[in-house]
Amino acid sequence: QVQLVESGGGSVQPGGSLRLSCAASGQTFSYLTMAWFRQAPGKERDFVASIMPNGNNIYNAKAVEGRFTISRDNAKNTLYPQMDSLKPAGTAVYFCNTYLPRKGYWGQGTQVTVSS
Predict the structure, then answer these.
(1) What proportions of the chain, in percent to the nearest 5, are helix, strand and coil?
(2) pLDDT for the residue 59
(3) How many CB atoms lie within 10 A of CB 111?
(4) What letter does residue 2 receive in the DSSP assignment?
(5) pLDDT tens digits, 83-101
(6) I want to staple 24 with a disulfide (CB 3.0 to 4.6 A). Which of 49, 77, 87, 108 is the partner?
(7) Which long-range contacts (CB under 8 A, 24 or more apart) does 22-31 make?
(8) Chain segment 4-63, per-residue pLDDT in tens
(9) DSSP tag of 88
(10) Residue 63, SS3?
């Protein structure tokens, strides 16, 4: 079992940047393909980006391609996204989970609001 805690959200103006964090407990994080998801108000939760255990084979959804950099530090059991050139459409609650999401791993998420 892995527990995931997201943090680092906040309010930012369009064009701004944010770096979120996802802290994982447990000893299996370094073996897992991890991903970020987001859920905008009134919409379903969508996939954003994923990263293999060794940090390779990064895949980004088209909506964030070129603006969203996912990374991980296995020594710290932490997953990151660096989000640049944020758009109002990026307003959402951001979650981390395994690439094939496990129901019991969903955390509270962290709110990101992009607004002028």
Answers:
(1) 10, 45, 45
(2) 85
(3) 13
(4) -
(5) 999 999 999 999 999 999 9
(6) 77
(7) 22/78, 22/79, 22/80, 22/96, 22/107, 23/77, 23/78, 24/77, 24/78, 24/79, 24/96, 25/77, 26/1, 26/2, 26/77, 28/2, 29/2, 29/74, 29/77, 30/74, 30/77
(8) 999 999 999 999 999 999 999 977 899 999 999 999 999 999 999 999 999 987 888 899
(9) G
(10) helix
Q: Closest by alpha carbon to 59, among 80, 68, 51?
A: 51
Neighbouring C-beta atoms of residue 43, cutoff 10 Å: 9
Amino acid at 94: Y
pLDDT tens readout for residues 30-47: 999 999 999 999 999 999
Tokens of 17: 């940047």
